[in-house]
Protein: Gamma-glutamyl-hercynylcysteine sulfoxide hydrolase
Amino acid sequence: MCRHLAYLGEPVALGELLLRPEHGLLRQAWAPRTQSSGVVNADGFGVGWYADGDPVPARYRRTGPVWGDLSFADLGRVVRSGALLGAVRGATLPGADGEAAAAPFASGPWLFSHNGAVPGWPGALTGLAATLPAGELLALEARTDSALLWALVLHRLRAGDAPGDALAATVREVAGASPGARLNLLVTDGSAITATAWRNSLWYLTGPGRVVVASEPYDDDPRWREVPDHTLVTATRTDVVLTPLKEPSA
Structure:
């Protein structure tokens, strides 16, 4: 099912957000607290982060569980960033895509993650896949529902849609094709975070000049706020806006 987190604020070590907290992504890989489907997220993990002066993020992704990668523990201790997206993966179906299936997916300045599942995959989304140019389908990083969702979102971003519009339209289309889909989507360009809460948990935490949007709280700070289901979240370092999302028309 997966768990993910995006952060904007003053530069911090990656591990301060992903590894060190009592209930951070490290622990969410084997003991998530609010996950509604599945109990282990050990089918891969990844983090993307932005360096000052470079709009294109770096990524580190691996196939196995995050707790087994000592190299990432070292990176998390010393690499600092003011904008990042991290994720741990629980595969919905068996596959051989390896780290290519681990979020975050990326293109240009964008990082993307999907927390959820699409029942009836791949058949349920055949019609939507057919709306993409052949070149974009051939460029999919993995043969997973998340990779196709990213292709659908990225197609809209490249066409000039704002991130919120791209996510909202994609969620409505996919939910129409697969009514039981869980579609918590998360995208950032390093300056803003946009996300959807759609049949899975989503929370946000704000502080002076910083914001975190995550599948679940990584600690017991009382300032965490749960996002209502069927909601679009648009967040910057100084502001969070929640917008209701409607179910697709029958």
